[in-house]
Design goal:
Length: 331
């Protein structure tokens, strides 16, 4: 029976990736060229077994075969719903733990950046300074409210081009893949949806400066567990860890539900036995959508398909991934 120890490093990487959390609220954001470029890079990185920066139909077929065999734990030639969901849970849990570690590390870095005087304590003034920058960024029309009247703040990182050196391109590719491969997505104050989730307490679609400052003060006081008027790094990180753990549970629950729904979509004849042929029906469609030149290879020279063409992949297959927004949940 295939075991995880028998997998190649590349196969292990393939098996550790993926999350389908598509929603109407994020679909619009993900029509951007930068996002679609990231999706193309993910596909190539995931299936490029020989490292030539392109994926042949043969490489793709073999990777899918390997994945299917790993999932078919009892080696009976077909995958049950339980096998499919359990394999998904294993990968999901491993990636969530990796993402959690990254979130905690990022939070410690953020504390250091906000602790301007380096006294290892974050004062209210230091905390409020970060909030002031946040509110100003979103209140684009400077009317004292954050709402739909404000244009969405520009988030240019994914579309930004650096100098055209090999090193710069490699760094950009690495950042895009790291961003895209995360499955733990915290509400981010970098976009309108995230700041509304955090600070629009009454749900009226408006955040006044007074409402924002009151909520920030409440956050600060709640995080200040010892009541000394400042935040230690541990207090700051522990509060964020609580939110991360809550989001992890929500993410895992929804992902497992979607894994079950994907099994139903893949099991074409509804006999509760997914064959490799059924599994590859969606795979062939996915490859064809990325191979826009129809030459049997997917590479960066292929024209990137429209976002809507990938929705079918997300609905039927867990090998492709829908990355939500920037996962920095910052304070």
């Amino acid at each position: 029976m295939p075991t995880h120890s028998s997998m190649t490093i590349k196969q292990a990487a393939v098996a550790c990736l993926g999350l389908v959390l598509a929603s109407a609220s994020v679909a619009h954001e993900h029509t951007t060229p930068g996002y679609m470029e990231m999706r193309q890079l993910q596909f190539i990185d995931r299936y490029d077994a020989d490292g030539d920066e392109r994926v042949s139909s043969v490489e793709f077929e073999q990777a899918r075969r390997d994945r299917f065999d790993i999932t078919d734990e009892d080696e009976n030639g077909w995958v049950s719903r339980d096998e499919y969901v359990y394999e998904w849970e294993d990968r999901m849990d491993a990636q969530l733990e990796t993402d959690r570690e990254g979130q905690v590390k990022q939070t410690r870095v953020r504390f250091g950046a906000m602790d301007r005087d380096d006294d290892e304590q974050m004062s209210w003034e230091e905390y409020a300074r970060s909030g002031d920058r946040m509110f100003t960024r979103h209140d684009v029309n400077e009317d004292g409210f954050v709402n739909a009247d404000d244009p969405e703040p520009e988030n240019t990182w994914a579309n930004r081009r650096t100098e055209d050196t090999a090193e710069a391109k490699a760094r950009r590719k690495s950042r895009m893949l790291a961003w895209g491969n995360r499955v733990l997505r915290m509400p981010t104050t970098h976009n309108r949806e995230g700041i509304m989730t955090r600070y629009d307490a009454d749900g009226d679609g408006n955040i006044s400066r007074e409402q924002f400052d009151t909520a920030r003060r409440a956050d600060f006081d709640r995080t200040d567990e010892d009541g000394n008027g400042s935040l230690s790094e541990d207090e700051y990180v522990l509060e964020y860890e609580d939110r991360v753990d809550t989001q992890m549970a929500v993410t895992r629950e929804e992902s497992v539900k979607q894994a079950g729904r994907r099994f139903e979509a893949l099991d074409d004849d509804a006999d509760q036995k997914m064959t490799f042929a059924e599994y590859q029906d969606s795979g062939h469609g996915m490859f064809a959508r990325w191979d826009t030149s129809a030459d049997g290879y997917v590479s960066v020279v292929d024209t990137i398909p429209e976002f809507r063409e990938l929705v079918a992949d997300n609905n039927q297959d867990d090998s492709d991934q829908d990355a939500n927004a920037d996962s920095s949940g910052g304070q």
